[in-house]
Amino acid sequence: RFKSGLQKTRQALNTDIRDLFKDEGRLVDDEFLGELFAKLIRTDMGAGPAEELRDDIAKRYRGRKVQLSDIIGSITEQTREMLRQDAAPLNLPGTPSVILVVGVNGSGKTTSIGKLSNHLVGQGKKVVLGAGDTFRAAAVEQLTIWSQRIGCDIVTGKPGADPASVAYQTVDKAIEIGADVAIIDTAGRLQTQSNLMQELDKIRRVVSKKIENAPHEVLLVLDATAGQNALSQASGFSDAAGCTGIVLAKLDGSARGGVILPIRRQFQLPVKFVGLGESIEDIAPFDADQFASALFS
Ligand code: GDP
């Protein structure tokens, strides 16, 4: 799954790094290290991680002649270490457990909710969706279509209805039908950020009144094609919304999958899922080993 999803990033990175090896091997000196750094930066991994990868190679190989495979091996190993995280399964402690999904419009939020719901239904869980983005008719429509495809219930409000009331009704519905998980969509209008944060706060309060410790997960959807911009999207949400994990969407559409490195570093949040395409199956729990290997081979 990661292999096909990371194809664009892998191609870009492989071509770039292979370019450094016009001859048989290369001497690892300042010139080589500078060129390597420039190539790494192009994956949007950011200066910090690129410096670390470069310095690791300097430490291992400075003054020696290396082959492409040495460099790739070293980068893969280091990337794996950087991405390593404790296992981060979804926290679904009770019935129902409540998942809020936040992120800017266009990030892939609705699609990710559809794919995640399908993933959970596939595990035998009963899911209810809540169309909490009541200001975007298209989001409600899209989520309704997903619910029909998956065969799960959905709670919608009137256009412009209070998102918190939709969240409340969604949890109510989940209790009523004995659902395992309620997944609630939220608005993502960054222009009115303070309103948005108040709105998220209200949803949290309403939901926690209904069920102890809810929401159990607040998943932040980030758009991998946005590269470094995904980082500023994330900072807008991470503190205020009390996020518990990240869904990195559209990894397949991006040659900048390296952005996962600064995301992990800056936000101290586990990456729980990655989006690997537009169809319903195209989501996978994140795995650092597989991810790092798929970057190159
Ligand atoms: P929202 O506005 O955040 O709810 O975003 P949508 O879920 O509507 O997604 C925006 C666009 O991105 C749609 O065209 C989706 O099909 C597409 N999209 C979402 N997730 C992925 C993904 O993992 N891979 C690809 N290739 N496209 C995606």
Automatic annotation (TrEMBL):
It is an enzyme of class 3 (hydrolase). It catalyses: GTP + H2O = GDP + phosphate + H(+). Its main location: membrane. GTP binds at residues 103-110, 185-189. GO terms for cellular component: cytoplasm; plasma membrane. It is a peripheral membrane protein. It is found in: Cell membrane; Cytoplasm. GO terms for molecular function: GTP binding; GTPase activity; signal recognition particle binding. Residues 270-283 form the SRP54-type proteins GTP-binding domain. This is Signal recognition particle receptor FtsY. It comes from Stieleria bergensis. The gene is ftsY.
